[in-house]
């Protein structure tokens, strides 16, 4: 399995790039967004790759980050979503956009990808809403600033647990908040939705503020 390629760009085409690795050229298929971000011919490039094996062909698909590669693999697990459809979704939304769309059940955003119809978009959201929390925790780029509630004992207890030394390091405030909510017993899809919704409200906040905001969204109404 070829999991990562690093070398010099030989040329770029509409849907792929050729990377020379010590004299061996690898054709790597990428989304439009990745192709627009990668360097020019002659420049160095490194991509995480996923190898698709078929009876008649082997194809490499490239991604700038490991989390985007994992989103590709997860999207491909959905019935009716092949490699090209997965690249179209990632190209249109990016990994953070895919995470937010699935967490919020926003299949219209998924449908905006080229070649993705409403039924496929709904299937992506429905099938991945309870499967994607691990990949969401890997990415977790957004955070939220929320007004703290000083007299909420439950929130303060969660914050104490979140700030204590943890055995596994998290990638961001969003990932840490998701982990804290999961430890409280919230379902992965429910927790991811609250964190994503809270993260969309503001930016530049720490983990405690994001947890407070997510808990407020999850609190029973009425």
UniProtKB/TrEMBL annotation:
Highest taxon, organism lineage? Bacteria
The protein here is known as Holliday junction branch migration complex subunit RuvA
- One Gene Ontology MF term: helicase activity
Looking up Pfam families in the UniProt record yields: HHH_5 (PF14520), RuvA_C (PF07499), RuvA_N (PF01330)
Name the family the entry cites.
Belongs to the RuvA family.
The free-text domain note is:
Has three domains with a flexible linker between the domains II and III and assumes an 'L' shape. Domain III is highly mobile and contacts RuvB.
Region (Domain III) residue spans: 163-222
Region annotation (Domain I) maps to 1-64
Q: Provide the gene name from the record.
A: ruvA
Q: What does this protein do?
A: The RuvA-RuvB-RuvC complex processes Holliday junction (HJ) DNA during genetic recombination and DNA repair, while the RuvA-RuvB complex plays an important role in the rescue of blocked DNA replication forks via replication fork reversal (RFR). RuvA specifically binds to HJ cruciform DNA, conferring on it an open structure. The RuvB hexamer acts as an ATP-dependent pump, pulling dsDNA into and through the RuvAB complex. HJ branch migration allows RuvC to scan DNA until it finds its consensus sequence, where it cleaves and resolves the cruciform DNA.
Subcellular compartments: Cytoplasm
Keywords recorded for this protein, A-Z: ATP-binding, Cytoplasm, DNA damage, DNA recombination, DNA repair, DNA-binding, Helicase, Hydrolase, Nucleotide-binding
């Amino acid at each position: 399995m070829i999991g990562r390629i690093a070398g010099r760009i030989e040329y770029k085409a509409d849907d792929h790039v050729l990377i020379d690795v010590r004299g061996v050229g690898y054709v790597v298929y990428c989304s439009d967004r990745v192709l627009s971000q990668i360097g020019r011919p002659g420049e160095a490039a490194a991509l995480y790759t996923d190898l698709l094996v078929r009876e008649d062909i082997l194809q490499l698909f490239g991604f700038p980050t490991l989390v985007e590669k994992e989103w590709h693999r997860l999207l491909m697990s959905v019935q009716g979503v092949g490699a090209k459809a997965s690249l179209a979704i990632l190209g249109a939304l990016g990994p953070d956009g895919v995470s937010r769309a699935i967490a919020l059940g926003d299949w219209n955003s998924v449908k905006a990808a080229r070649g993705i119809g409403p039924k496929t978009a709904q299937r992506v959201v429905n099938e991945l809403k309870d499967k994607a929390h691990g990949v969401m925790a890997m990415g977790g780029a957004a955070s939220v600033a929320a007004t703290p509630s000083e007299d909420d004992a439950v929130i303060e207890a969660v914050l104490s647990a979140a700030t204590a030394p943890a055995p596994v390091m998290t990638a961001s405030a969003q990932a840490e908040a998701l982990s804290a909510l999961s430890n409280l017993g919230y379902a992965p899809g429910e927790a991811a939705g609250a964190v994503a919704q809270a993260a969309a409200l503001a930016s530049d906040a720490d983990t405690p503020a994001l947890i407070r905001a997510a808990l407020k969204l999850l609190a029973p109404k009425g």
